[in-house]
Write a structure and sequence with these properties.
This protein is of the alpha/beta class and about 425 residues long. The chain has a single domain, classed as Alkaline Phosphatase, subunit A (3-Layer(aba) Sandwich). About 35% of the residues lie in helices and about 10% in strands. The chain has 13 helices and 12 strands. The strands form 2 sheets. Strands 1, 5, 6, 7, 8, 9, 10, 11 and 12 form a 9-stranded mixed sheet that branches. The chain has a 3-stranded antiparallel sheet with strand order 2-4-3. Strand 3 and strand 4 form a beta hairpin. Helix 1 crosses helix 8. It starts with 7 loop residues before the first helix and ends in a 12-residue tail after the last helix.
Length: about 425
């Protein structure tokens, strides 16, 4: 018989934080982050932890407009399609004679100039889907557009290559474990930022009651707590196992973060705080191989110009700070940051001063081990498919390259079949 201590209600009361709370955050986070601001930077000597390579994945959620990110300034078709949204040629950070980066992407332009950024152009997949939810699911699971998968590509990587490790082989900084990290073994955890999840004394028990009731009807929220999806395990047994996993991993995470310090100034944005937390975990020697963060707001159907400029600036400043931090730690050569969005936008602007859901788009990688530069040609702006750019590089080729050459694991078992790799990394 299951110990009555591990009832759903008691479990939720024990492991979930109060106040500004998310139902996917274990209780050790409150103790860990309460101590963060009191750590003296001068007392910490950066540690590389394990000498394994690390992958950080960032989603630009909502469908980033690739054409106003990597801008084909030398193409008249760009200006004809976007009479109000096009960025003037003399404002872009030029990457060559044809295209350049949006003027907000100053740090990214510098990283590219130093050979520390690779931009893969024309990325997509056959039969693209324009639904945010379905397109995100396809990118997260690396599935074909016609198929459904339960587990994420990084979750399957954890199942294949991280067996026997404590929970925390992959860490999502946010409210919940994304589908990309969901696995059979439950090796992924989600944690929040200090600002969001500091413990608050005297918390009102009413929100916990509401959360408990909501979790009972949500169907799957408990499964997402640690990225597990074991439908054959009784809820109480699963919660007991999850509680024990949390205890097993909490001391390690606490120890890492107690040693961590702020070696670089980050922008005071949610993305900046999330990447700072990732950097402190890496600098403290956390053994995790994968980290996941996201930045939302890229669904720019109307009045795109100002909002997209601000989003790109937020993206640029946070990535710039993170890369400077990795260099200061001495970890830049063993960390690669991959960014993606679930789809790009249409070539032509719409009547509302925005752009609608599209298909192919560029993706970015940053790190000290990259070859750097542009990979693949910019898609044609005149040979379109239903108003969309046509992809020439399958996103799973990027995944295959990172799995095989960066994380050092066979990609076919993770992705379901073999995809060609790309010239992204130095030998």
């Amino acid at each position: 018989m299951t110990d009555p201590f591990f009832t759903r209600r008691k479990f939720l009361r024990t492991v979930i934080l109060g106040g500004a709370i998310a139902p996917t955050v274990p209780s050790f986070v409150n103790r860990t982050f309460a101590a963060l601001d009191g750590v003296a930077a001068s007392s910490f000597v950066p540690s590389t932890g394990k000498d394994d390579t690390i992958l950080v994945v960032m989603q630009l959620a909502g469908g980033n407009d690739g054409l106003n990110t990597v801008i084909p300034f030398a193409d008249d078709a760009y200006y004809k399609a976007r009479p109000q949204l096009a960025v003037a040629a003399d404002e872009v950070h030029r990457l060559g004679d044809y295209c350049g980066l949006h003027p907000s992407l100053r740090n990214l332009a510098e990283l590219h100039g130093n050979g520390h950024a690779s931009i893969v152009q024309g990325v997509g997949y056959p039969n693209p889907n324009r639904s945010h939810f379905r397109a995100t699911e396809i990118w997260h699971t690396a599935s074909d557009a016609e198929k459904n998968e339960s587990y994420g590509w990084l979750g399957r990587y954890c199942d294949a290559a991280c067996a026997g490790e404590d929970p925390g082989a992959a860490i999502a900084v946010g409210d919940q474990v994304p589908q990309a990290l969901r696995s059979q073994s439950g090796k992924s955890i989600a944690i929040g930022t200090p600002r969001e999840y500091q413990f608050q004394d005297g918390m009102d028990p009413a929100p916990m009651e509401a959360m408990d009731d909501a979790s009972a009807s949500a169907g799957g929220s408990i499964d997402m707590l640690f990225g597990a999806a074991d439908q054959d395990v009784h809820v109480a047994d699963f919660l007991q196992r999850t509680a024990l996993d949390a205890v097993a991993s909490s001391s390690k995470v606490q120890d890492i973060l107690r040693k961590a310090h702020r070696g670089t100034d980050y922008p005071a944005t949610d993305l900046g705080r999330r990447l700072e937390l990732v950097a402190r975990l890496i600098g403290g020697g956390m053994s995790s191989r994968v980290y996941y963060v996201s930045l939302g707001g890229f669904d720019t159907h109307a009045n795109q110009a100002g909002s997209h400029e601000r989003l790109l600036a937020t993206f640029d400043q946070a990535v710039g700070a993170f890369c400077r931090d990795m260099k200061a730690q001495g970890n830049f050569d063993r960390v690669t940051l991959l960014t993606f969005s679930e789809f790009g936008r249409r070539v032509a602007q719409n009547a509302s001063g925005g752009t609608d859901h599209g298909a192919a788009a560029p993706i970015f990688l940053f790190g000290g081990a990259l070859k750097g530069g542009l990979v693949g040609k910019h898609p044609s702006l005149t040979k379109l498919e239903r108003g969309d750019l046509v992809h020439h590089t399958d996103f799973r080729s990027v995944y295959a390259t990172l799995l095989e050459q960066w994380l050092k694991t066979p990609s076919a078992p993770v992705l379901g079949r073999q995809f060609p790799t790309l010239p992204l990394l130095r030998a």
